[in-house]
Amino acid sequence: MSLTISEQIARRGQGKAPSQLNEQRVPIYGDKATATSETRPLTWRLAHHDAVLDLATYESLKGFTGLKEALSKSPKDVGNMIKAANVRGRGGAGFNAGLKWMFMSPPDGLPRYLICNADEMEPGTFKDRLLMERLPFQLIEGMLITAHAIGATDGYIFIRGEYIVAAERLVAAINECLANNLMGNNILGSDFSFNLHVHTGAGRYICGEETALINCLEGRRANPRTKPPFPQISGAWGRPTVVNNVETLCNMPAILNHGVDWYQSLANIKGTSKTPGTKLFGCSGLVNDPGLWELPFGYTAREIIEELAGGMKDGKTLKAWLPGGASTDFLTADHLDVVVDFDSIQEAGSRMGTGLIMVVDEAQDMVPLLRNLEIFFQRESCGWCTPCRDGLPWGVKLLTAINDGEGQLGDVEKLEGLTRDLWIGKTFCAHAPGAMEPLMSAIKYFRPEFDQKIAQAVGVDVIDAAANQQPVAK
């Protein structure tokens, strides 16, 4: 079934994707017997309710007990708990959130900020949307706990502009918290005061970079800033600022409720990973049952793709997969038994990123696939630094020529050169290196597909890549 333009516009107005995906069953939580606050701390409430959108229901499901526990402790003790728990950033970087908080300047009586990065624009990623649309109070509680720990006076949820329903539900939840002394001055009778605001973005992928996000929040052009100083020292409006991802912040209430040892023990459920806690993993593409699943770390890509996502659709064979969004390196069917966690995926030659797998089937030509990805990254470049501004369009031009039958000998070498020239340390931020990850891995694993198109363009049977793309005569 295809949708008309008017139907697509109507769906966007409702905060829905203009496709049929929203109508598919999305398996997430497990049954009520197994989904508890200790086994599925992020999504267990959704085993009992489709969404938790009012304060009374949230409080009946252990809502704000984590905040009350946090307020009974000093900010330093709460920060030390999160640091000891080793909550690794769920936005893709995987840095210890509690350690990140420790870099913040000491309180001086002036404003300090906490920003939730909800600008979920990584292609193939849709986990934060679920948490905000269906569990807005959980994110707010996580932000209140974090704000108490770092001494923040004000907070902002910087949310992707297309997430209309999520923004509306967050605003409604904030207003209900304000009316019940869970926001504002002297929260729950304590000396802790905090105000929270929802700020909708205007649609720029670069705002996923925390300093570009801060610039945009301030009303400036969304360009990254030079580091140092880091935001913890000089962030929003020149004041100490912490930026955390939605899923990262949603971990805080459960840790305050159940403790550090419990959080770390979740890694023992599978026994194949040392990463504590759970993660919202997902899978999209030509699988039978795309969706999201909250899992402890330790599951392999094979288990996620073949068991949870139901395997490839009939007649389709897995060719490659991206572990966590478009800006990660491709892995192949040979890597299916790799555990999907930060360290194991890195050892396999990629990054876990957001943990939402995108599959590619054997029928998919890698050259146009890469061209589409690089067009996205080219368009989303802020243009601040020359390698990214000029290098990404050059990559698109080369890929377009190869795909259109106009490739030349040496084009693949030029693409390989770009992956080196636009790599980490040679650009102002990580946007261009992220764009190079799928490109370099596609050339690494699927070079013959590039060479075959060039061979057809120059009129030879085959190209010898080992001999620097020298043609082999017919």
UniProtKB/TrEMBL annotation:
Assigned EC number: 7.1.1.-
SUPFAM superfamilies: Nqo1 FMN-binding domain-like (SSF142019), Nqo1 middle domain-like (SSF142984), Nqo1C-terminal domain-like (SSF140490)
SMART domains in the cross-refs: NADH_4Fe-4S
Domain NADH-ubiquinone oxidoreductase 51kDa subunit iron-sulphur binding residue range list: 367-412
Record-linked InterPro entries: NADH-UbQ_OxRdtase_51kDa_CS (IPR001949), NADH-UbQ_OxRdtase_suF (IPR011537), Nuo51_FMN-bd (IPR011538), Nuo51_FMN-bd_sf (IPR037225), Nuop51_4Fe4S-bd (IPR019575), Nuop51_4Fe4S-bd_sf (IPR037207)
Gene3D superfamilies linked to this entry: 3.10.20.600, NADH-ubiquinone oxidoreductase 51kDa subunit, NADH-ubiquinone oxidoreductase 51kDa subunit, iron-sulphur binding domain
Alphabetized Pfam families for the sequence: Complex1_51K (PF01512), NADH_4Fe-4S (PF10589)
Cofactor entry: FMN; [4Fe-4S] cluster
Catalytic activity field: a quinone + NADH + 5 H(+)(in) = a quinol + NAD(+) + 4 H(+)(out)
Domain of life: Bacteria
Keyword list, A-Z: 4Fe-4S, Flavoprotein, FMN, Iron, Iron-sulfur, Metal-binding, NAD, Quinone, Translocase
UniProt region (Disordered), positions on chain: 1-23
Family classification: Belongs to the complex I 51 kDa subunit family.
Function in brief: NDH-1 shuttles electrons from NADH, via FMN and iron-sulfur (Fe-S) centers, to quinones in the respiratory chain.
Record-given protein name: NADH-quinone oxidoreductase subunit F
